[in-house]
């Protein structure tokens, strides 16, 4: 495969920019069909740059150049040259003012990067490299300028005109037009620029900062969504207070604006003072949003707000340093959510994501380190590795340093680097200096890819009253990093030892630091053989080879004082049961459910003391996508049958217990968002899903579910019924889906749920219905949320996607090829299910490979998709 248009960029090639830009004046003239952008910027040669070349390359793509002038004189053709990806200015002085006018076409911008339109409203997305689709510029994060932005547009189409910073002027113009001028006093890289213009209303509130400044808070939405912004606003105020309290960070501008748009490539964007959000992470009401949606809004609002310091005030020197802001900000939003809700629940959710998606990425062709060494398309590196593993790396530093020294490190980081564009090394160096902890070996977490694998051996010496545990680590090879070349990681391991009553033995230190390939830790004065609770709170992003018996896991489930490890024991126990049954089915042997496991589940169902969320989570079996990764050769059909067998057996054997849990946790009261209420709903709805686990469940349970659907006063309870029923082949399924559609067809976010339900069904008819839904009015190929909900969810439906004839593969490849010309970022994301193709049987391998090759051969394939497909085929 060759595609010469796409070239790889290496971290080692980083050079400081030859020129810096101190100030930028932008003038946007929004028309009916196009937009003219006039940019005037002040350039100065960078004293730190080695080169003294008089040529200067400016990034610029898909731009119509109208005018270019230097220091007030229009440039003759001899002084500049247009190239595919930009413009070269020739014979430039050491400082100058550049004026460039370009024309762009927001209506035709289906990639949703740069300036585009969503439901008629103009909005921008510039990270990572979208600004170059607006004007010619030094589109790199280490060039930071003060922006003044003037916008003019039609007063009827665009009554609202917004940009970063403070509004300094506005007024009327001739012909029904008006303008606004915004000034952002903080120098920023252009990826943080934003413009929004359209017909929006806002809800308003205010926040008084710790130093007594009053901040005007506004959330802009379409008028029909006015009533759905309350939760987002509350979340914003909580985030502002939390960041002051926990990190000592105060907001810096006088206004903070959030705009919700329906067409957005990802979750949200932290543009300075003007966040643009996917409406999914702003709008919520009990009737339309689930508990998970509410938590999602709170988490993403916090995440973008926290970026104001970790990302905006201190930004990245180059895109290889992306985790500098993303890993740290994810850590911060996880901590915030833990403080607002339930810490153990939050930790379990975060670890589930990490294990299912990041571990999978780490073991496949896209494996890369938290700070990658090269990329072809930076948009492909907004990954679970950079974000979530990056957050784990920060969390490990927090564990090693302790909360107090961690905070000192953060303070030093801001003291040293406020207003700068810096590297991950700069961050670690501030942490090490402030705490006096040696983090040199620890930094390997930034450079070495792959998930370390630990093995555990225990030894109990009854005479010496001595307990020894030997831990060893290895990290498998990843693309361009072989196992032999990898050095041992510095791994913090929180742990405990349980006595036979299930109590914690007293220990001097509950943290082990594994720094070499193998190490033995000895504990004296241990009077009985302990049960080891390892990696409490999941203190490091590693895999541990199963070493404990099922009895020990059941014991930990019942007794561990660490709630995370109590849950983890249930997870590991279910995993071992399902994987064993998968191989039993593969050998055509009779499947029998381990009585020990049945007992463990019965204990959960009859537990009236513990936190209900945690009980609900302990009942939720590992997903097929996760379990598949644990198999040598993945067998989707038997894996699905084994998991389904476990659910059905449990439902049959423990029907009375499940019913009691369902009945004991119904609540007809008003919808409440407390952890307690969310826990109750979670437990109740997990019980319901078991009761409906059969293809043709008991009519009495179906009736009970129908009643919940009809009486539910919140989306969590309603969708739980549909979701459980979506796998049943019974007439009620169709009736409910139709009823739900009629009720909610005008609400795009609720319709996303309707699509996801159908695309995630394990019924054999799923692919056919997904294909039908592609033509349904509820679907639109140009809306990323719809694409994710239907096509993305189908790709994540393990058993349906891996249908042995390869029809799922063919369908997904068709969609990727189609979407690639329209929106490469979205197309690229859809390739993920193909990436693990080598893990399947030879027939499926062949089928998947053929589809990857078909995609690769597409004429004019985008760099985004090209990179994913090439990596998959090359390794
Ligand atoms: N920083 C943005 C992500 C931009 C993605 C560009 N492809 C959102 C966030 O992480 O907060
Ligand atoms: Zn972020």
Named at the architecture level, the CATH assignment of the domain at 314-542 is Orthogonal Bundle
Quaternary organisation: single chain
Biggest sheet: strand arrangement: 6-5-9-3-2-12-15-14
- Which structural class do you get from the secondary structure elements? alpha+beta
Quote the CATH topology of the domain at 314-542. Neutral Protease, domain 2
Radius of gyration: 28 Å
Q: Which CATH class of the domain at 314-542 applies here?
A: Mainly Alpha
Number of strands: 31
Give the count of helical stretches.
28
Assess the beta-strand content as a share of residues.
15-25%
Spell out the CATH superfamily of the domain at 314-542.
Neutral Protease Domain 2
- Chemical compounds bound to the protein: (3S)-3,7-diaminoheptanoic acid, zinc ion
How much is the average pLDDT? 97
Unreliable stretches (pLDDT < 50, length at least 5) are none
**Helix content, binned percent:** 40-55%
